[in-house]
Design brief:
single chain; 8-stranded parallel β-sheet; alpha/beta
Length: about 290
């Protein structure tokens, strides 16, 4: 199947209601570049998404910095990610790569120079590296000061909790815990997430509520209740990402990018919004 250019759909639109502070950071996007093919084991590439395409979205949302996450489509081939980081530059961009226990130290050091600062652990279908390799990967990246970005269905947190507690370096609990379907904010598994944050090496990413929400946008009240509780408990450990270009859902269900930012108007106060968009990403990614 031929990938559709991202700019075949509107990349611009009304500005978000939330006025972003200088240094605002999108901590989760994916890029799909011409000339880089999907790899066996991952999903196909539905459409291309280039740094030029994202620049339009970034300008619309009032963002200055970005973290590019290795898509599942490319599996362990980080070539497109590294090319994207070369184009974006290390002043305003960082990357999260797919790292296996066999990835050489030489490769990791070269990727670090390009701006890579994390390794993706994906415990959902199509993930290139799962929790089975998580602790070994974490040991490999720790000397570089990288973190893990860990995604799982929060409903199954019991299966991953012991492993998360054993991580010695920094790591992100991705996609609002991605409870599918969402649980109540006072669920015991949300309690467990708060305890993980209290240990001092976990972060929590507000991202892609539309992928798990049952109530739907623009308010995403079910996942929003979880987000609000986490933000109230540990605003210094929370970051935000748009998940652009949203290819995890059918094209007709792509959310409005401004809506993905404006959730913070209801989920966090002004001081915490600055932490989430500027201060916390700067601390984690070294901007």
């Amino acid at each position: 199947m031929t990938a559709i250019p991202a700019n075949s759909r509107p990349l611009e639109g009304p500005a978000p209601r939330l006025g972003t502070p200088p240094g605002a950071t999108d901590c989760h996007i994916h890029l799909y570049l011409p000339g880089f093919e999907a790899q066996p084991g991952g999903p196909g590439i539905a459409e291309l998404a280039t740094p030029e395409d994202y620049a339009s979205v970034q300008a619309r949302l009032g963002l200055e910095r970005v973290v590019v996450t290795q898509p599942n489509a490319y599996q362990l081939d980080n070539g497109a990610l590294l090319e994207a980081l070369t184009q974006l530059g290390t002043t305003s961009a960082r990357g999260v790569a797919a790292v296996s226990p066999q990835t050489s130290g030489e490769a990791l050091r070269a990727w670090h120079e390009k701006g890579v600062r994390g390794a993706r652990i994906m415990n959902l279908p199509g993930g290139a590296v799962t929790h089975a390799s998580m602790l070994e990967v974490e040991r490999r990246i720790r000397p570089l000061g990288w973190h893990l970005m860990v995604q799982f269905n929060g409903q199954q947190l019991d299966d991953y909790l012991e492993g998360l507690q054993r991580i010695e370096g920094e790591y992100i609990i991705d996609h609002i815990g991605k409870f599918m379907p969402p649980v109540a904010a006072d669920d015991r598994r949300v309690d467990d997430i708060l305890r993980l944050l209290d240990r001092g090496n976990a972060w929590f990413k507000i991202c892609a509520g539309y992928e798990a929400s049952v109530t739907g946008g623009p308010r995403y009240e079910d996942v929003g209740a979880i987000a609000r509780r986490v933000i109230a408990h540990a605003p210094e450990r929370v970051i935000w990402g748009s998940n652009w270009p949203h290819v995890g859902v059918p094209r007709e269900q792509y959310p409005d990018d401004a809506e993905q930012l404006d959730v913070l108007l209801e989920w966090a106060g002004p001081e915490d919004r600055r932490r989430i968009l500027v201060d916390n990403p700067a601390a984690l990614y070294g901007f």
